[in-house]
């Protein structure tokens, strides 16, 4: 496995809400009349905590290094928002401790066998047979920062 994680911390239940401007931007797939000029004046805000953290007491953040999940949109340096309160289902991306190593993989059933699958064809699925595996949580969001 070539992905390493660093625990960045837990979500703070007492963190104050921080509303940011969140203008309404809708894409249109065709002409269906004129947009309302009043839309430009709606006072919308975005609170990143409310948007990305559904259960603060069950949420923590991880920093990713490695390339095993690149095709699933998780890249080196990304920050994962992980929710411990969710039960993993096939298709979920999870954080797990497998044989003493923390890993991020997609949970899938392969021929009836539960497996942890990477998003990089260089790495084979890991069948969860005769392995010690503890699920830490389900990845709810991926935060990717561009170098600017």
UniProtKB/TrEMBL annotation:
Residues 33-139 form the Peptidase S24/S26A/S26B/S26C domain. The keyword DNA damage applies. It comes from the Bacteria. InterPro entries: LexA-like, LexA/Signal_pep-like_sf, LexA_repressor, Peptidase_S24_LexA, Peptidase_S24_S26A/B/C. The keyword Nuclease does not apply. Keywords: Autocatalytic cleavage, DNA damage, DNA repair, Hydrolase, SOS response. It holds the Pfam family Peptidase_S24. One of its GO terms (biological process) is SOS response. PANTHER family: LEXA REPRESSOR, LEXA REPRESSOR-RELATED. Belongs to the peptidase S24 family. This is Translesion error-prone DNA polymerase V autoproteolytic subunit. It comes from Billgrantia tianxiuensis.
């Amino acid at each position: 496995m070539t992905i390493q994680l660093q625990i960045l911390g837990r979500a703070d239940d007492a963190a104050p809400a921080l509303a940011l401007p969140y203008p309404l931007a809708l894409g249109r797939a065709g002409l269906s009349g004129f947009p309302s000029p009043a839309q430009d004046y709606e006072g919308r805000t975005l609170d990143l905590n409310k948007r990305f953290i559904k259960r603060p007491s069950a949420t923590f953040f991880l920093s990713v290094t490695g390339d095993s999940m690149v095709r699933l949109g998780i890249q080196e340096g990304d920050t994962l928002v992980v929710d411990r309160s969710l039960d993993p289902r096939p298709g979920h991306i999870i954080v797990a401790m497998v044989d003493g190593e923390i890993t991020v993989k997609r949970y899938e059933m392969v021929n009836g066998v539960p497996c942890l699958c990477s998003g990089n064809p260089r790495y084979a699925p890991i069948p969860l047979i005769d392995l010690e595996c503890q699920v830490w949580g389900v990845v709810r969001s991926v935060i990717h920062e561009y170098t600017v």
